[in-house]
Amino acid sequence: MKDVVSVVGVGCAKFGDRFDASYEDLIVEAATAAFADAAMGPDQIDAAVLGTYSPSNSMGKAGSSLADSLRIYGKPITRVENYCATGTDAFRHACLAVASGAHECVLVVGAEKMKDRPSRGAPMEGKHPLFGYGATAPGLFALAANRYMSVYNVTKSSLAKVSVKNHANGAKNPLAHVQSEVTEEQVLKAPIIAWPFGLYDCCPTTDGAAAAIVMRTSAARKIKPNAPSVRGLGLAVTTARPYLDPDFAYTGFPCTTMAANQAYAMAGIKDPRKEIHLAEVHDCFTWTEITNYEDLGFCKKGEGWRFIEDGISTLQGELPVNPSGGLKSSGHPIGASGVRMVYEVTKQLRGEAGPRQVKNARIGLAHNVGGPGAVSCVIVLAQA
Amino acid sequence: MNIGIIASGIALPRFALQSEHLKSAWGSSSKGDRAVCFHDEDAVTLGVQAALAAGGDGLPGIDGVVCASVSPPFAERSTAVQIAAACDGGELECQDLAGARRGGMGGLRAAFAAIASGDKKQVLVIATDTRHGEPRSAQEGSFGHGAAAFVVGTENPGAIIVGHAGAFSDYVEAYRIDGEKFVRSEGGRLERTEGVTRPATTAIRAALKRAGVSASDVRHFAFGSSDSSAAQAVAKACEFNKDTAVDCGLGSIGDLGSATVGWALAFALERAKPGDVIVAAAIGDGADAVVLRATEAIANARSRVSSRDLISALRPVPSYSRYLTWRGELGSAPDSPGVSAVLLHHDEPMLTRRIGYRCTACQLVAYPMAKLCGRCRSEKVESHRLARTGTVFTFTRDRLFPNVEPETAMLVIDLDGGGRIFVQGTDCEPSELEVGTKVELVYRKFHGASDLPSYYWKARPLTKKEPS
Q1: Which of A83, A140, B1, B468 has its CA 20 to 30 A from that of B427?
Q2: Element (H, E) at A259
Q3: What would the pLDDT profile of A200-241 be if each residue is shown by its tens digit?
Q4: CA end-to-end distance (rounded Å), chain A
Q5: Distance, CA of A81 to CA of A125 (rounded, Å)
Q6: pLDDT in tens, B349-398
């Protein structure tokens, strides 16, 4: 996929405890910024995709949450929900719509108002006596982390270094939820949420929205000569119940590898470690980033902990990962996260990332994984 | 400066639990009817109704709110603040009076003091209660639900507060233990004298003395009890004239708790003529008494909704059993639908009997039973009961999982003979369960996912002594 679809504009709302704003307000904040960035208005949009896990409290589970927020009526608007890969999958759908020729210009918005719900952030909505009740995101990811740490003799200290790195990057990102650095000692001494994850191993519960506008590259270049183009898209769905699958190794997430391989094939990437210059990956918990290094092919299985220990993924490293501060600092408003990653990669490829700018970034990657381990989506973008 | 009542409002629910309902249910013979809440009403909603009747939308001119209730829906959260917010009163100073049902009169006295000191200009005083009697108890036949509200201020009051006083009593009269739903009371003659007559008489005499009013001048007596003989006894002890005690229709609505005296005072204000002296007294771990004198502006002080209209609007609850569902005594709350019996029926083999499958094509053993093999998609799967022993493949200790214990061990277990299962740990500290720990499954109460009890298998460390 080359020079077919480009990202002509991006926008991102301030992520955080947005007690001042409604779900709709966040969408307007993000979309208004994206329209301004693309030098266009809502009338130039042919279609829209809303990526959201839990739509507005005042509207139903439909595209209408986007229509009523932006007052865009009468156009095709689709709502996408795919666990924590919701945002990147929404972006993927918009790209496919443009690539197919069905639409010229498509708006993607990811939005989530996590703090409008009582306690514990992500809701478990099921009523099944065994599967629906009580299971928590940190608990489910911790199952994999503990197996990995047991198999590869990894300690909490390696996990903590991911937190230290992403906090340092987040401190340079004015849109991040958390903008403060932490020490490894602070991370290790924090209260436990679900072993081995302590408070600073977990991303915060956050409100946020992000938007991107995609167009046919030929048209996009006329509006914005430096609009990055979409090189690769991948999506893979595996079991959401790895805890019942006797074949599941629990040392990583094969769905990430499958999605990445689709995207790499489309982009013509043979050696991701060398050909990718920055990556925004799904660090919902510190260990998740470590397995992502491996599952995305940046290093071998079982060596991800070394990748962080060796400093390869720092802002100044060989392959900077999560220059935005990641989910750890930005927060993880589920549907918004993937689109925020597209925002970050676009800014980086345009050289507009300020103090967190990665040098000589020409190819960037965005990655979500959810479920845990059930769904992964990978996006590859290239400098114009 | 004359301080007094410049407006008032009363509120009742629309339903009556009638003596016939209780007679047919229990064969008991309670007297009269009770005004009772619909399923979506509580002390806050009734308080809002009364507050709006007294103060109007936006509570114009009011700079303070006091609310008395012994049945607030929240043990910790201000009833006054919730009511003020619902009335759109702005950022008013709000206080709550709880613990004893004389709080309504205490509120009037506090409002008077606040205005006299110059701290406030107009104070809204609310008393609201929805006390529920236990089914088949005497209280079920005597407790009603209602609210009363008064605006106290200096702008042309319809009834001036000319004196007020309180009295102490630590006799254990009515009480409700924290966490319990129902009020308890021993009753009896000593309760009548020590809990009611003595403190009420003491407070009234002191208030009259401060007001410089003699007992024979009192025209209306509003008393905070639905027991008319108690009101008569207090009136007699205070040497009021014979027809002074107000019969305000409590026989049709029941004992309104904190709101009883407010209702009786509102009733008296409806009937008072300029110059009439009114005594209002509330009881409950002591007493509070207020002496008022009606002015030429008495019409201003009358409730915008009349007591007669509220009583005539009452209609019988559709049935006693429906009433019990409103009170949560029957059936389950609709907002927690819980586990369906249908789901438990079709998942019973999995939940209760650990039924998984063996694939005859690829020999995989897995859980739960399925139509297609999870590894090779073959339809050649046969029912297979999983073993009760196995090894922890991975784990976590989750501190967010809802549990009475601070940590819950969550375990992925590879069972002996095949199959993987995801269960909670039990019978040990969660830290005793790690990768490689040998465990056995035991059948346990699972969790409170719904009102329907759930059971499932949990894992505990296998000891060498115990056969499995």
Answers
A1: A140
A2: helix A254-267
A3: 999 999 999 999 999 999 999 999 999 999 999 999 999 999
A4: 14
A5: 14
A6: 888 788 999 999 999 999 999 999 999 999 999 999 999 999 999 999 99
What is the spatial distance between Cα B7 and Cα A352, in angstroms, rounded to a whole number? 65
Torsion, Cα A246 A251 A253 A256, to 10 degrees, reads -140
Whether residue B414 lies within 8 A of chain A, CB to CB, comes out as yes
Q: Say if the Cβ atoms of A250 and B410 lie within 8 Å.
A: no
Nearest-angstrom CA–CA distance, A55 and A157: 38
- From residue B268, alpha-carbon distances to A167, B159, B217 in Å are 69, 11, 15
Nearest to B398 among A136, A241, A246 (CB): A136
Instruction: Answer whether B165's CB lies under 8 Å from B210's CB.
Output: yes
Q: Active site includes A332? A: yes
Instruction: Give me B458's structure tokens.
Output: 């949990």
Interface mutation vs chain B, best among A124, A152, A244, A287, most B CBs within 10 Å: A244
Interface with chain B: mutation pick from A119, A195, A238, highest number of B CBs within 10 Å: A195
Residues A44, A50, A56, A62: is their CA dihedral positive or negative? Answer: positive
**CA-to-CA separations, B242 to A144, A199, B58, B217, B251, in angstroms, rounded:** 83, 73, 42, 12, 20
Instruction: State the ipTM, two decimals.
Output: 0.85
Is there a contact between A142 and B418 if contact means CB atoms under 8 Å apart? no
Closest CB to B420: pick one of A128, A196, A244: A244
Under 8 Å between Cβ of A139 and B401: yes
Question: Percent of chain B at pLDDT above 70?
Answer: 95
Residue B289: in which H helix or E strand, if any?
Answer: strand B287-294
Closest of A365, A192, A194 to residue A282, by C-alpha: A365
pTM of the model: 0.81
Please report, for residues A132, B52, B346, B351, B366, the alpha-carbon distance to residue B355 in angstroms, rounded to integers and kept in the order given. 19, 61, 12, 8, 9
- DSSP letter assigned to residue A84: B
Of A139, A243, A245, the CB nearest to B374: A245
Pairing of strands B93-97, B64-68: parallel
φ, ψ of residue B212 to 5 degrees: the values are 70, 35
In angstroms, rounded to a whole number, what is the distance separating the alpha carbons of residues B335 and A28? 32
Q: Could you read off the pLDDT of A343-373 as tens digits, one per residue?
A: 999 999 999 999 999 999 999 999 999 988 8
State how far Cα B233 lies from the chain centre: 31
B285-301 residue pLDDT tens: 999 999 999 999 999 99
The one catalytic residue in A93, A277, A332, A367 is A332
Using a CB-CB cut-off of 8 Å, the residues of chain B touching A138 are: 396, 398, 400
A316 in B contact zone (CB under 8 Å): no
Which residues does chain A have within 8 Å of residue B391's beta carbon, measured at their own beta carbons? none
- In this prediction, residue A56 carries a pLDDT of 72
For residue range A54-76, list pLDDT tens digits in order: 887 667 789 999 999 999 999 99
Q: Is A177 a catalytic residue?
A: no
> Look-up: residue for tokens 């009011």?
B62
- Ordered DSSP codes for B136-164: TSTGGGTB-EEEEEEEEESSS-SEEEEEE
Residue type, A315: L
